[in-house]
Predict the structure.
Amino acid sequence: MSAEAGPTSPSRIFVDADACPNVIKDILFRAADRARVMVTLIANQWVRVPASPYLRALQVAGGLDAADDAIAERCAAGDLVVTADIPLAARALEKGALALNPRGELYTADTIAQRLSMRNFMDELRGAGIATGGPPALHARDRQAFANALDRWLAQRAR
């Protein structure tokens, strides 16, 4: 089974791997083999994955949003996209995929517009030279929330 298969293929997971925390990748690696789901990590740099018929790494040419574009081109309805990138999550939702951030928050059609507005506002502040800080550290509760959301998606996929 190829991760490049069309929309009629079983649900797959695509990971925006450039900024995905290693602990989240490890959760995905274990889930891929356990649930026999294809997981493709896409990044601008090489990403090491364990040997498994369900894991694949794809390195794309550098450039602004190259990995995001590759994920958006490949995902389809029923797939899961793991990303903290709000515009990529919006693109995934438009294609009928689900989008989950590494903290376990499932983006929805109801929440994505508000998240895009907040992201754009923060970009404007940073553009004006205002320090906005980065995201807080990933905690054990975030890892657990991600694992729980992933398990729910995998259970729904199995039905």
User: Anything to note?
Assistant: The first strand starts at residue 13 and ends at 16.
